[in-house]
Amino acid sequence: MTNLKWTYWNRKTHYWGAILCAIPVLLVIGTGVLLLLKKESDWIQPPSMRGQGTVPQVAFSDILAAAQKVPQAKVTSWEDIDRLDVRPEKGIVKIRAQNDWEIQIDHQTGAILQVAFRRSGTIEAIHDGTYFHDAAKLWIFLPSSLVLFVLSLSGLYMFFFPIVKKRQMRKRAKAAQAAKASQANQ
């Protein structure tokens, strides 16, 4: 009787849990696939260019001046720059503006090598839930991941429980047959 209740509640949990976490989990999976492909897709993340040399020579003032020359980036001051990514081995500095435009400059000459829109940051924000609201990460995406964990465990239980039960029934049936055969031989 208790096993029947456990199976009933396990199925109910599995059923409703899947509905509750479906949208956040599908968003995480979909954006996760895109993030796995970001180096293969110029649409998601611009490819890194090659500059001259391996020792950065350009001054911070030159970096800001180069960024200010790109109208799409809308950089007027350092507040408009989200981050700098220095790649000495490639000879570049990547300037990421607050509006997700990326400017790659040669770290020797300060020349602009490439300007492109970078979507990986937006995809990452959707992936972790912060795109919607900072609290979404902890109040929607974390609970959804915990529900998905429980669903995985209950799904494994629903998969393996019948297999184990069938094996036990076969063993009991064999033992009963052996007992009958033993009694018949006596």
Describe the structure.
It is a single chain. This protein is an alpha+beta fold and 186 residues long. It has two domains: 93 residues, no CATH class; 73 residues, Nuclear Transport Factor 2, Chain: A (Roll). The protein contains four helices and four strands; from the N terminus they run ααββββαα. Strands 1-2-3-4 form a four-stranded antiparallel sheet, with helices on one face. A hairpin with a 3-residue loop joins strand 2 and strand 3. It starts with a helix and ends with a helix.
Secondary structure layout plus pairing:
Elements: H1 2-36, H2 60-68, E1 81-87, E2 92-97, E3 101-106, E4 112-117, H3 120-128, H4 136-185
Antiparallel strand pairs: 1-2, 2-3, 3-4
Q: Largest sheet at a glance?
A: 4 strands, antiparallel
- Give average pLDDT, whole number: 90
Helix and strand run = HHEEEEHH
pLDDT below 50 for ≥5 consecutive residues: which ranges?
none
Rg? 29 Å
Based on secondary structure, the structural category is alpha+beta
Question: What is the overall number of helices?
Answer: 4
The number of distinct structural domains comes to 2
**Strand tally, please?**
4
Helix content: 55-70%
* DSSP strand content: 5-15%
Biggest sheet, spatial arrangement of strands:
1-2-3-4
Shape: elongated
Termini separation comes to: 38 Å
